[in-house]
Specification:
Radius of gyration: 16 Å
Distance between the termini: 36 Å
Strand order of the largest sheet: 1-2
Structural class: alpha+beta
Helix content: 10-25%
Order of helices and strands: EEEEH
Largest sheet: 2 strands, antiparallel
Length: about 70
Amino acid sequence: MPQVTIRVTFDGCEETLTEYLCDWPDCPNVAVEVISVSRSFRLNSAVCAEHAELISDRDREKKPDL
């Protein structure tokens, strides 16, 4: 997942802000939910709220109601 880091100095104090971007193709939004982890390859996949909802809706459609 792409990572964006911004370093700012305010009143002599330096801060570092780091955000991860959505892994959905061509999506510039900040990732808020991890959807998969592969420990053997050390890979994570995260998406923004919009795409997390899209994936959740798609999964609900596949599961039959019990």
